[in-house]
């Protein structure tokens, strides 16, 4: 699974998939070496179904082939930055932005937040659980440094992958709300504590 988080030379086999998200049709190029290449995973779908009223500046962390950032830009009045550590994911995201005829989206390489220089109204992520607890926690905890004062972090995590411990561990940093629970997945909103 390391190929999701690195730029290992795995062979390429680009395919186009179609998806319906909240009643709207989208197309995406996917490839070997990116998460959920066969179709949009349940956790991402649930996350997107449960976010509303997004505006301002948004950061999609671990963007993969661009589903979250593209959906958010298409459905809300916002500017979107998308980051990933996987160069193939970055290239796919750029193609998918064009494929879905969108503007006001920037995609760039970043290992966690290392190349991020702005602060955001929203950070949205389906964190890379397979990268390990340490990386997931760095992404979730460090988000506070890149959120504006009233900014919010939205993420999805499965109960069996540590949802309850994440909620407990982030309680000192954020004001937490569980937006939805379904099929073992939690959609969580965290607002920066002042």
Brief sketch in words of this structure:
The protein is an alpha/beta fold.
Major sheet strand order: 5-4-3-6-7-9-8
What name does CATH use for the topology? Rossmann fold
What are the low-pLDDT stretches, counting only 5+ consecutive residues below 50? none
CATH superfamily: Vaccinia Virus protein VP39
| Average residue pLDDT | 92
| Major β-sheet annotation | 7 strands, mixed
Number of helices: 5
Task: Name the overall outline.
Answer: globular
Taking all Cα atoms into account, the compactness measure Rg is: 15 Å
SSE class: alpha/beta
Distance between the termini: 38 Å
- Count of beta strands: 9
Can you give the helix content as a percent range? 10-25%
Name given to the CATH architecture = 3-Layer(aba) Sandwich
CATH class: Alpha Beta
Overview of this protein structure:
- The protein is α/β, with parallel strands linked by helices and 194 residues long.
- The chain has helices spanning 42-49, 67-75, 87-99, 133-142, 163-170; strands spanning 15-21, 24-30, 55-61, 77-84, 105-109, 120-125, 147-158, 174-182, 185-192.
- The protein has one domain: 3-Layer(aba) Sandwich (Rossmann fold), CATH 3.40.50.
- Helices cover 25% and strands 36% of the residues.
- The protein has a seven-stranded mixed beta sheet with strand order 5-4-3-6-7-9-8, sandwiched between helices. The protein has a two-stranded antiparallel sheet with strand order 1-2.
- The termini are far apart.
- 38% of the residues are buried.
């Amino acid at each position: 699974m390391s190929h999701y988080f690195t730029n290992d030379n795995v062979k390429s086999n680009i395919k186009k998939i179609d998806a319906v998200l909240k009643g709207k049709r989208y197309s995406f190029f996917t490839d070997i070496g990116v998460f959920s290449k066969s179709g949009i995973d349940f956790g991402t779908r649930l996350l997107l179904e449960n976010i509303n009223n997004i505006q301002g500046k948004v950061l999609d962390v671990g963007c993969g082939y661009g589903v979250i950032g593209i959906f958010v830009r298409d459905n809300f009045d916002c500017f979107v930055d998308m980051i990933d550590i996987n160069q193939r994911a970055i290239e796919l995201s750029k193609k998918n932005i064009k494929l879905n005829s969108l503007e006001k989206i920037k995609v760039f390489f970043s290992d966690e937040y290392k190349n991020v220089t702005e602060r955001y109204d929203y950070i949205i992520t389906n964190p890379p659980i397979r990268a390990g607890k340490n990386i997931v926690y760095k992404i979730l905890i460090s988000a506070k440094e890149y959120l504006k004062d009233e900014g919010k972090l939205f993420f999805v995590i499965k109960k069996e992958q540590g949802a309850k411990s994440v909620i407990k561990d982030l309680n000192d940093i954020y004001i937490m709300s569980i937006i939805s629970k379904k099929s073992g997945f939690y959609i969580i909103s965290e607002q920066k504590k002042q």
